[in-house]
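Service request form, structural biology core

Requester: graduate student, group of Dr. S.
Request type: structure prediction, single chain
Budget code: on file
Notes: please return the result as structure tokens.

Sequence provided:
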Amino acid sequence: MHTSTRITCTHDNDGGTHQMGYAEMPTNIRLTNSEQEALRKKCIEINKLLVKIGHQPVKDSELVHAIFAQVIEKVEVSNSGQITVRE
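Core staff response, request fulfilled:
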């Protein structure tokens, strides 16, 4: 049985056309069970470190936004069509 988790995100929509002619980008993504578990584990790990240094813990969705913001510009497609993240 396949189950998934939906993460809902918001974005600014100026009513204009976005890159590649799309009128509006999707605001939801679905995570597989293994992706959800990996996110949960990483969030626990990060939150332990944050609390240890006196900071507030973050929500899973906040972690996803932080990862996305730092990685999105590094996503590329190889000559073979594989999606990769450059270092």
